[in-house]
Amino acid sequence: MQLSIIIVNFNVRYFLEQCLLSISKSRQDIDLEIIVVDNNSSDDSKEMVRSRFPGVHLIENSDNKGFSAANNQAIQLASGKYVLLLNPDTILSEDTLARCYQFMESHEDAGAVCVRMIDGSGRYLPESKRGKPTLAASFFKMTGLYRLAPRSQFFNGYYAGHLDPDKMAAIEVMTGAFMFIRKDVIDRIGLLDDTFFMYGEDIDYSYRILEAGYKNYYLPSTTIIHFKGESTKKSTLNYTKIFYNAMIIFVRKHYKGKNYLFVLLLQLAVILKAMFSYFLERLLNFLPLLIDISLIWLILINLKKWWGQIYFNNINHINLNFDHINAPIYAAIWGLSLYVTGYYRKNAGWLELIKGIAGGTVLILIFYALLEPELRNSRTLILWGSITTFCLTLLTKWSYNFLFSKSFGFIKKKNIKYAIIAHAGENNRIREMISKSRQKTRYVGRINPGSESKDDALGQLIHLNEIVNAYNLDEVIFSQKDVPAYDMMKSMAGMPSEVDFRVAPDDTLSIISSRDKDKQGELLTVGLNFNLSFPGSLFNKRLLDIIISFLILLFCPLFILLFRGSSYFVSNMMAVLSGKKTLIGYAQPIDYAVLPVIKPGIIPCTDIGYSESTDDIIRKENLYYARNYSWYKDLEIVLKNINRLNGKYN
User: Shortest CA distance to 130 belongs to which of 239, 210, 216?
Assistant: First the structure.
């Protein structure tokens, strides 16, 4: 056996499928085995491997053992001369395995080799080659200062910026997404350190290979696509903790005697970066709302003075309580009403604006009626306030769109113009798949993957740049069956225009995409047209959650008397109001690889008892709920199961 390929999978069924397909095209004459270790995925990854790739050795774990421990399980079974640790969210070029194998055969000093990586948009991923995580390198990487001098060994040592990404070089650290390792080296240095649950194990292993007297090489003559890239969800608090704790483990292990200051600084950096990321992300999300509320408050105060002068001939006729009580509360109600209706989403328009202002005005009038007499001011101010708030928020929205999208006005959802690079048969299959996805798309035509001329084609793959510019395409879809991976990657990397790419694997019902390396990747699945995917349905679901939760809290004592026992009405309804939960959710187990993501539910959407159910039945019930969702369906389930709202949610 020449090569053992090891892939650790966790809930990425569609990525895993296209990865395995790319391996079959890249294997050429190499005698290889493939071992997939599944870390207790809740999607149908295991079933897909068993049915579509029966020759793959599948290890099914009953829990998530982490990346290192799962790889170690497979390494101990591997019989190849070389071992490739490979991420499932990758596509190999046709020559990748052969080039790496030949390189290792001709370089006896090589302990391992990694390759050039691009993301789903064709951009080079700097983590293709890296340096040791020294104190300086870690600091510049963590603060982002390395971007000021990307080719400097001092400032960008983390990504080995001084090394040409197009030239072969000996490097210090490889990426865990693709590590082609000599099996003799593994036998000598041992397995991966499973102290690293996720992240950091590739740095540790690269370091151990160097300590054993071997070299790690970077081979840019072959390229792979790494869809998720290194920055998946890196702004989250959980990622920050996991990643930098892994670095702390590494420092304590390899920098003995001089690690105290390093560890102390890293721990401080974890806290500061996590706090900064957390607050910055939320500030940016709510900044337009906060600006609008502040401006509405200011305008209401000036309206009060104007109306007092016009109607009462006294600028101070309306009492000062209006400035400090009524005005800020009115401003907050209008702002939050606009937020709930989705007005602050990118593609919001007239409907969301009108609904937000009208809903806020009704709530303010209700609030006004409940006020003490001395706090009730002229209702005419509420009318004028609604008009000025309408004009103000319209102006701020249009100005925001102009600054960030170069469009003074509402940003309308446009039909995505796309072309397919495929032969006629595969082109028709992919086009039909997209037509069933209910996305707003406009098919422009087919691009021929070969060099022969076809009357029904827009042109040939070699003229992709010209075709994209001529037809102003938004997306290009590659058929993995008809377009060699090498040609695909070459075309993506050489595309100067702003265009998104998708990959349609051979004979599957999915299209994988990653619009940029900060996104998880998207998929279209034929036949799964979910009502629950549309913004209007999500708004209705959220609105119903708020209304029902508010009513239950209002009559909470009555419910507690009616439904004795464990009473979690208050905590459950507060969780729903805060957006942490929804009243009706999916039943367990949940296949998030296929289903639209919603908050955890207090009541499951199906009445099937878990003792009598199977995973397959529950999966079908969840699919039915997502496809046929309606707000009155949620209302019906709540009314039938209202006694279950007082139970503790697990």
Answer: 216
What is the token pair recorded at 106? 């001709």
Q: What is the pTM of this model?
A: 0.63
DSSP class of 125: P
Q: What average pLDDT score do residues 352-379 get? A: 84
Q: Which residues pair with 84 in a beta bridge?
A: 5, 180
Q: How many helices (H) and strands (E) does the chain have?
A: 21, 18
On whether the CB atoms of residues 179 and 205 are closer than 8 A, the answer is: yes
Exposure string of 13-25, with b = 16+ CB inside 10 Å and e = fewer, is bbbbbbbbbbbeb
Among residues 545, 527, 320, 509, which one has the least CA distance to residue 430? 509
CA distance 639 to 493: 55
Token pair for 522? 């998207």
Range 124-144 burial, b when 16+ CB lie within 10 A, else e = ebbbbbbbbbbeebbbbbbee
Amino acid at 567: S
Neighbouring C-alpha atoms within 13 Å toward the C-beta of 496: 4
One DSSP character per residue, 536-552 reads: HHHHHHHHHHHHHHHHH
- Nearest Cα to Cα of residue 230 among 219, 218, 243, 216: 243
Which residues are registered as beta bridge partners of 513?
A: 502, 522
Tell me: the pLDDT tens digits for 5-14? 999 998 888 8
Helices (H), 255-314: 260-311
> For residues 210 and 185, what is the distance between their CA atoms, to the nearest angstrom?
10
d(CA 174, CA 172): 7
Q: How, if at all, do strands 582-585 and 601-604 pair?
A: parallel
Mean pLDDT score of the chain, rounded to an integer? 81
Give me the pLDDT at residue 523, please: 46
What are the tokens at 405?
Answer: 């999208």
Q: Please give the backbone phi and psi of residue 603, each rounded to the nearest 5 degrees, phi first.
A: -115, 130
Let me know the angle formed at the C-alpha of 573 by 571 and 575, rounded to the nearest 5 degrees.
Answer: 70
Token pair listed for 222: 């072959």
525, pLDDT greater than 60: no
For 94-104, what is the mean pLDDT?
95
- Model pLDDT, residue 232: 44
Token code pair at residue 34 = 């493939």
Helices (H), 126-212: 135-143, 183-189, 201-211
Higher pLDDT, 389 or 313: 389
DSSP state of 71: H
Q: pLDDT tens across 442-492, in order? A: 899 999 988 666 667 888 888 888 888 888 888 899 998 898 888 888 787
Mean pLDDT computed over 620-638:
82
Asked whether the beta carbons of 425 and 465 are under 8 A apart, the reply is no
Mean of pLDDT values over 178-199: 85
User: Does residue 43 have a pLDDT over 80?
Assistant: no
Question: When comparing pLDDT for 167 and 153, which is higher?
Answer: 167
> Domains of the chain by range and CATH?
3-129+165-230 (3.90.550.10), 416-525 (3.40.50.720), 531-646 (no CATH)
The secondary structure of 375-436 as a DSSP string is G---HHHHHHHHHHHHHHHHHHHHHHHHHHHS-SS--PPPPEEEEEES-HHHHHHHHHHHHT
